[in-house]
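Researcher: Here's my situation. A collaborator sent me these components and asked whether they could plausibly form a single complex. I don't have experimental data yet, so a predicted model of the whole assembly would be a useful starting point for our discussion.
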Amino acid sequence: MASIFTRIINGELPCYKVAEDENFFAFLDINPIAEGHTLVVPKKEVDYLFDLEDEVLAGLTSFAKKIAHAIDESLGTLRTGIIVEGLEVPHAHIHLIPIYFEGQPVSLGRKTEVSEDRMKELVTLISKAVKK
Ligand code: 5GP
């Protein structure tokens, strides 16, 4: 069965889409731990990040870098951190976590409330800042 992320990529499930290219896709995490928390995924469905082909892993990292810069520029972060866990959704992904202040807790257990309106604002801001 296709993963939730494959179904999102295929447009079968809704998401706040940040960007996509031929091989990769970025969208807001539905349970963010900080405003602008974004997931970047390869379109090819592979469970474990370190089972990705070298070329795909390198491409995913470059794509994540581009999205992280867009987050930094559009949301005025200190920087953007990354987390890889993958215990919930068996489709390799990188969490991009905007860090707004020193000492900000960065842990996947800590969800923060973000309204639907704010999610829409965030995705517009970030996606506009993504360099082609
Ligand atoms: P992990 O697999 O790395 O533990 O975490 C998976 C992440 O995917 C979680 O942060 C969770 O909030 C997010 N997630 C799970 N289902 C959906 C979904 O349907 N849409 C979106 N946007 N995010 C999801």
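Model: Some features of this prediction you could bring to your collaborator: The pocket of guanosine-5'-monophosphate is lined by residues 4, 15, 27-31, 85-89, 108 (CB under 6 Å). The mean pLDDT is 97.
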